[in-house]
Write a structure and sequence with these properties.
Layout: E1 20-22, H1 27-38, E2 50-52
Antiparallel strand pairs: 1-2
Protein name: THAP-type domain-containing protein
Domain THAP-type: 2-65
Keywords: DNA-binding, Metal-binding, Zinc, Zinc-finger
Length: 65
């Protein structure tokens, strides 16, 4: 049996391990997320990358903070 892995927020130094949001499927919105997370648009992105709920505003889950 493979060991369980714990998901972690992709934002550096966050470390939160619950209430995640997957990357958007829209390429333009995904590009904005990558700029938010990495301060750049990386060449490759893991499809398992997630952000925790701390990085979203209450008014819109399309807005990152």
């Amino acid at each position: 049996m493979a060991p369980k892995t714990t998901k972690c927020c992709a934002v550096p130094n966050c470390g939160k391990t619950q209430s995640f949001h997957r990357l958007p499927s829209d390429p333009n919105i995904m590009k904005e997320w990558m700029k938010f997370i990495f301060n750049e648009d990386p060449d490759r992105v893991s499809k398992n990358l997630v952000l925790c709920s701390l990085h979203f505003t209450w008014t819109s889950e399309n807005s990152t903070k």
